[in-house]
Amino acid sequence: MLVSLPKTFWCNKKTQLSKENKIWLSYSSSKKYNGSEPAFFNISNDVWCQKLLNNWEGVLREIEGNGDKSFVSYFNNTFSNKESQWKFIPLRMWGVEYSKNAASFPFTKSLIEEIPFVASASFSKLEPETKIKKHTGDSNIMYRVHIPLIVPGSLPECGFKVLDESVSWELGSAFAFCDAFEHEAWNNTKMDRVVLILDIIRPEFHDKYIWYRAQILATLWVQFAFQKSNLHNKFPIFVRVFVMKVLGVFALLYIPFHNFLGRIYSRKIK
After folding, report:
1. What is the C-alpha to C-alpha distance for residues 248 and 210, in angstroms, rounded to an integer?
2. What's the pTM?
3. Which domain, by its residues, includes 150?
4. Number of domains present in the structure of the chain
């Protein structure tokens, strides 16, 4: 079952899809997101959600089988209060396939490939006494889904907050939230917390999915390059938009080329 949340959390999809939705990208916006979505989406009736929840223990076995060797520090280490204690294993990042990592998680990879419009997929580990600072995510175009795998505790010690609403991770449950709203996470226990995170594009944004994906990937490149100085946030908005679109065109070419090389690599290691 899903995490028990007040009914006010759940987005009515029929109502939401009847409205005109505009893409919001944090990198190219000067204002906080003020969309009409609630903090959390109702994904309980989605077939892919039930598929993931029915198989979460198989995904956990792959994590346990690989140990900690595949985890690396999150690319932007300014987000956590303890540098290098928020770690992840990227399987897919805005269309870019991490073939070497995916080869170590064949069961998880097979589950993800059955879900349409998955832009990103990764394992996220929050080590003991670590907090992910309050921040605004990349965009409003996706459901950011958490599938808990290792949960060391519940609120108030360990939890997740979007706007003013806090929830606990629960094994065998899932939640999806709007990444455009401010959110934070914390693990004040003595054990690791591990979840599988998926970015699944919302239906109202499917028409330009490939271009949106490329633009967001481009903004991640910029954030990585300037994470220490934070210089990119001082660029005027029109400069950010220009940079995002130019690099977005490059990303459109880069993604299929990178994935083609990854498929060659995958064949060699079989």
Report:
1. 10
2. 0.88
3. 7-210
4. 1
